Amino acid sequence: MTTRIVALANQKGGVGKTTSAVNLAAALSEQGCRVLVIDLDPQGNASTALGVDHRVGVAGSYEILIDGLAMSEAVTMCPEVPEVAVVPATIDLAGAEIELVSTVAREYRLARAVERYLETQKLDFVLIDCPPSLGLLTLNALVAAQEVLIPIQCEYYALEGLGQLLKTVELVRAHLNPELMVSAILLTMADARTRLSGQVAEEVRAHFGDAVLPTAIPRAVRLSEAPSYGQTVLTYDPTSVAADAYRSAAQEFAAITAKETHN
Ligand code: ADP
Ligand code: MG
Fold first, then answer.
1. Which of 43, 55, 71, 224 has the CA that lies 20 to 30 A from 155?
2. Average pLDDT, the chain
3. Which residues fall within 8 angstroms of residue 105, CB to CB, at 6 or more apart?
4. What is the rounded CA–CA span in Å between residue 26 and residue 38?
């Protein structure tokens, strides 16, 4: 069995990386997949949304990256969603960006840990929720992953900074991880009532073609409410439009085969 390892990356904050990571994880688990979410953002928003403790002192991605802790020592099961496991992020991770600079094999720390973990664990997906930067944390995610999923917010400036992200992916592929591909682009916070949102979606589809998942995630208050209850929208409001959108997107994403991945 092959495990798809996916980095959700975009150095812009607030584009829906975390929301997509946790809700895709929940939707994939509904569809029978075993999923591990690695929270790689010091804010720990994915840990919060998945209802997992991430107070200082909890073993998580910091200890894995900096202390070489085995991933199995940091994995906890999500209480709300079956078959979703989580590596939490504590605020300690904020220091890792600097601490990693002087660490041996600094770009490969996460990759090695994931590799070792997968020797004994059967998983369908590993989803890595990246921080809003292109520093060493995101670099570790891009080296550990085979695929990048880029969430793009349907707003002004949506494409701004995307060139830099794609260039980083290209550099990682050339020098650190030849497997890496941008496998999917997910449009988020789409608002059917505004023309702008439609125009941005059109522009992204014209630019990236088939890489863009057919389903765009609508802007929905339920999605922003769910994390404060330690939940994904699939458990918080299972019949909502937002939950259904993530179910569709997850199905489309799961159907992507290696052949179809885009550069
Ligand atoms: P990122 O991880 O890229 O910084 P988040 O997933 O945290 O982005 O989303 C940023 C904010 O927008 C959060 O408050 C989140 O709850 C909210 N949000 C994300 N997606 C949607 C959506 N489709 N509709 C409404 N709010 C959303
Ligand atoms: Mg985030």
1. 43
2. 95
3. 112
4. 14
Angle formed at CA 92 by CA 87 and CA 93, multiple of 5 degrees: 60
Pocket of ligand 1 (CB under 6 A): 13-19, 45, 132, 188-189, 217, 219-220, 223-224
Tens of pLDDT, residues 86-95 = 999 999 999 9
Give ion ligand 2 contacts, CB < 5 A.
17-18, 41, 45
Establish how many alpha carbons lie within 13 A of residue 77's alpha carbon, considering only the half-sphere containing its beta carbon.
7
Q: Which of 61-65, 157-161, 210-214, 248-252 has the lowest mean pLDDT?
A: 157-161
pLDDT for 181 equals 96
Distance CA 169, CA 153 (A): 19
Task: Name the pairing type of β-strands 35-39 and 84-87.
Answer: parallel
Q: How far apart are CA 221 and CA 240, in angstroms?
A: 10
Residue 65: pLDDT above 90?
Answer: yes
Q: Residue 212 forms beta bridges with which residues?
A: 185
List Cβ neighbours of 138 (8 Å cut-off, separation of 6 or more). Answer: 7, 9, 11, 40, 130, 131, 168
Q: What is the spatial distance between Cα 50 and Cα 205, in angstroms, rounded to a whole number?
A: 31
Mutate to test the pocket of ligand 1, among 224, 234, 240 (most ligand atoms within 8 A of CB): 224
Supply the pLDDT for residue 82. Answer: 85
Closest CA to 7 of 184, 176, 157: 184
